[in-house]
Design a protein that fits this description.
Length: 698
């Protein structure tokens, strides 16, 4: 018998238990073990009914992703499911934890399903650029109807046991999975209840067969946000086969769709992103077994946009917060905005109606830095200047308890410098949240020169607890994301001096898949911020300065690089801006030329990749995949392109290095010269991925 799946007999009930930690993934060994045990149970005349259950913390949580892209090992999952479904004896799936992807497909092949009330059931393959490949798109619509099936398969989000019961995906909510399923099987045997094979039951898709708009409306609602992605549309087509074709034909078409997606660049990028996110929480250079410090309360300094958003993130996760301001007025305003935000989410049905009150109750708003005393983690979210930050950290020393972690939410500033203003530099690090902090998933965790390993582990652990994706980076101006973004900003500005227009540059960047172009982003942030900063440093930027001098500060004034109709956020090209650019170029004696979209794309993306190579060379990021995680979760890089460093490998590093050298010469810009690491990899025909592979081997 298999080592990871065993069959036991409790008189007339056969119990098949999968035990393959940590998540009972459907490896070849698990598939083979289930097949062997189900066959043995069917062949045993003493067994009248079968329970399929799992040991450990979860039911089968999905396929073994490490097998994707490798030669298939028998048995195929569809063969295992056919054996379960055709069993003459009732087979009941006992679900606890999560039944996801292939795990739910196994459960759907069973004749009945029961689950504990905390269980989650879903088909999230679309998030890896795939569709369910073992009958999920054919059986789920027959179990719950096409509307919910589309929501679960095209959207990829799981449902809870209560919803599963309501829609007929499970028969019962039970206390213990195995014992509950065993009691259920005994009932089936006693009542001689007929087996329900989903493949033969079209009752729930009959209405959609008669009126296909039931299906197409559900698809339209779910694919609204799927810009640029292939998998949601392929998944929707596959659910359509369940309505239009006999089961076996639908199964065959689903398989074809799955194999096409698994080989696609998009799915490869999305699977890479999945592993990159998990890799990012492994911290290089921290001794094994380093434990995080306990965090029971957090203090946040500053109730502005960032401080309020960070406080919301902690309250969302049930962590009590002391929110500190310098005055009653600012505090009241910050607390009011949080309340409004939560109430708006509740009104949309995003959180339960009683959630705003519960979450607000976790936030204690107070005036005065002396209120940090009971916090285990202090996050400073005050004005972004070194003088203010140093003053705050200097004061913290007298009030914060020993061992508390002190974090600065800075997007650029030197954490080593900030740490010098306290007597406990070992407790200081950066936690750079992205705006809006209660929505954006990235948290750049900045390891300073003296940061203690357990302080670092604490920051990573708490970031994950509040549903952020933590990525550890080193100290440098702008860390990883903003340092690379600055290179793009520099080129976007230069392109205006050469003949491109803001709308042309932005269109190229959004067509690539970014949520916004650099000029629309400038308008959103406010052009006056950069203008003030340039004036402080004595720097000129003729076009941007001219816009600001004309009172065009972006969305807040209704005019920036674009114009905005009253109350609208839609960026409209403005002939006045074109005129202003022409006049500036004339005054500076610059000649316009036609700039191609291809050049714009290369000059937007390649300098960022070049900067990424420097970041790796300097050890500011430990892995190319960490840079990609920063861009995927902090800047809206399209997941189907895997991140800038992954994308660079697909384009080819030699091509990128050659083009950078060409632009450095053409535009007389030495900062575009390829970085030594990029040049070296290009010359050797290697990739950024080869660096990660080499460091793992070492």
């Amino acid at each position: 018998m298999s080592e990871v799946v065993k069959l036991e007999r409790h008189d007339e009930v056969g119990i098949v238990t999968v035990n393959s930690p940590p998540v009972n993934a459907l490896s070849a060994a698990v598939r083979g073990g289930i097949l062997e045990c189900i066959k043995a149970a069917i062949a045993d005349p003493a067994i009248k009914g079968i329970v399929l259950t799992c040991a450990g913390r979860t039911f089968i949580a999905g396929a073994d992703i490490t097998e994707f892209g490798k030669p298939p090992k028998p048995p195929a999952l569809n063969d295992v499911l056919a054996e379960i479904e055709s069993s003459p004896k009732p087979v009941v799936a006992a679900i606890h934890g999560t039944a996801l992807g292939g795990g739910l497909e196994v459960a759907l092949a069973c004749h009945f399903r029961v689950a504990v009330k905390e269980a989650k059931l879903g088909l999230p393959e679309v998030k890896l650029g795939l569709l369910p490949g073992a009958g999920g798109t054919q059986r789920l619509p027959r179990a719950v109807g096409p509307e919910l099936a589309v929501k679960m398969i095209v959207g990829g989000d799981p449902i809870g046991a209560a919803d599963a019961l309501k829609h007929g995906l499970i028969e019962e909510i039970v206390e213990g999975p195995a014992s509950g399923a065993e009691a259920f099987v005994r009932k089936l045997i006693a009542e001689k209840r007929p087996l329900r094979r989903l493949r033969d039951d079209d009752s729930k898709i009959a209405a959609a067969k008669a009126d296909r708009s039931i299906f197409t409306n559900a698809v339209a609602a779910m694919t609204k946000k799927a810009r640029g992605l292939e998998a949601p549309f392929a998944a929707a087509d596959a659910v359509g086969y369940a309505i239009d074709l006999p089961f076996d034909e639908g199964l065959k078409k689903e398989r074809e769709g799955f194999l096409k997606l698994v080989a696609s660049d998009q799915s490869k990028a999305q699977r890479y992103a999945f592993f990159a996110e998990r890799e990012a929480s492994k911290i290089a250079g921290v001794p094994d077994g380093t434990k995080p410090r306990p965090v029971n309360r957090v203090a946040i300094l500053g109730a502005g946009t960032m401080g309020g958003g960070i406080a919301m993130s902690f309250a969302n996760a049930g962590v009590p917060v002391t929110l500190i301001e310098t005055g009653e007025e600012q505090l009241k305003r910050g607390m009011g905005i949080m309340q409004k935000n939560w109430e708006a989410t509740a009104a949309r049905g995003g959180i339960p109606a009683d959630a705003p009150a519960k979450r607000m109750a976790l936030i204690n708003g107070v005036v005065g830095i002396e209120n940090v005393g009971d916090a285990d983690l202090v996050i400073e979210a005050v004005f972004e200047t070194m003088a203010v930050k140093k003053e705050v950290f200097g004061k913290l020393d007298q009030y914060v308890k020993p061992g508390a972690v002190l974090a600065s939410n800075t997007s650029y500033l030197n954490i080593d410098e900030i740490a010098k203003s306290t007597k406990r530099p070992q407790d200081v690090l950066g936690m750079h949240f992205f705006s809006p902090a209660n929505v954006m998933k990235l948290c750049e965790i900045v390891r300073a020169d003296k940061t203690a390993p357990d302080a670092l582990v604490t920051a990573v652990t708490i970031a994950r607890r509040i549903a952020k994706v933590p990525t550890v980076v080193g100290v440098c101006d702008g860390f990883v994301g903003n340092r690379m973004l600055a290179q793009r900003g520099k080129q976007s500005e230069k392109l205006l001096f050469e003949g491109a227009l803001p709308q042309q540059v932005d269109a190229v960047v959004t067509k690539f898949g970014m949520p916004m172009g650099p000029f629309a982003m400038g308008d959103l942030a406010g052009l006056d911020i950069g203008w003030r900063s340039r004036k402080d440093r004595g720097i000129k930027s003729e076009i941007a300065d001219a816009l600001c001098e004309a009172g065009r500060f972006g969305q807040k004034t209704g005019k920036g690089y674009y114009k905005y109709e009253a109350g609208s956020r839609s960026a409209l090209p403005d002939p006045e801006v074109e005129k202003l650019i022409d006049e500036t170029l004339l005054r500076l004696g610059r000649k316009k030329r036609v700039v191609s979209d291809e050049e714009i794309l290369e000059r937007m993306m390649y300098p960022m990749i070049n900067e990424g190579a420097k970041i790796l060379e300097e050890g500011v990021a430990a892995r190319p995949s960490d840079i990609d995680v920063v861009w995927l979760y902090g800047y809206g890089w399209p997941v189907y392109r895997g991140g800038p460093m992954f994308w660079a490998d697909t384009v080819g590093l030699k091509h990128i290095a050659d083009r950078l050298a060409f632009y450095a010469k053409e535009t007389n810009d030495p900062s575009l010269e390829p970085a030594p690491l990029l040049k070296k990899l290009a010359a050797e025909g290697k990739t950024f991925a080869s660096l990660a592979a080499a460091s793992k081997a070492a």
